[in-house]
Amino acid sequence: MELTSEEKRAKALAQRAKALAQANETRVGMADVKRRLAAREITLAEALADPRSTRTRIFHLLLALPRYGEVRARWTLRELHIPNLKRVGELTERQRNTIIKYVEDAEENRFSDR
């Protein structure tokens, strides 16, 4: 049994609406992780472990950190030999641990100078 053009159109619209809703849910989840990271409600380690952040670029996650702008985020990733465009889900365990340690050490050093 073949679908009529109206049925095909209705099916396509339903699929599109479902995809848009799913994409919006993903964006809202990523934004929530970044907002909570910026507010220091979660640590970078928790943000990296959150499944909602797997599609976020690591550069954008660093930008969400307090006191991290474009220059510091790029410099940090360059220092650690991690490409700016790499997504959180593409990071190896070693890269995750390196970023976490680097950011924590930088934060610790910032406060120990006082």
Task: Draw up the topology in text.
Blueprint: H1 5-38, H2 44-49, H3 58-64, H4 70-79, H5 93-112
Helix pairs in contact: 3-4
Structural summary, described in words:
The protein has helices at residues 5-38, 44-49, 58-64, 70-79, 93-112. The protein is an all-alpha fold and 114 residues long. It has one domain (5-112): Helicase, Ruva Protein, domain 3 (Orthogonal Bundle). Helix 3 crosses helix 4 (70-79). The model has no long low-confidence stretch (mean pLDDT 92).
Count helical runs: 5
The number of domains is 1
Helical percentage:
55-70%
Reported by name, the CATH topology is Helicase, Ruva Protein, domain 3
CATH C-level class: Mainly Alpha
User: Radius of gyration from the CA trace?
Assistant: 19 Å
Low-confidence stretches: none
Q: Give the helix/strand class.
A: mainly alpha
Instruction: Please give the number of β-strands.
Output: 0
Please describe the biggest sheet, giving its number of strands, its sense, and whether it closes into a barrel: none
Q: What is the CA-CA span between the terminal residues?
A: 76 Å
What is the residue-mean pLDDT, rounded to a whole number? 92
Q: What is the molecular shape?
A: elongated
**Strand content range:** under 5%
Write the CATH architecture name.
Orthogonal Bundle
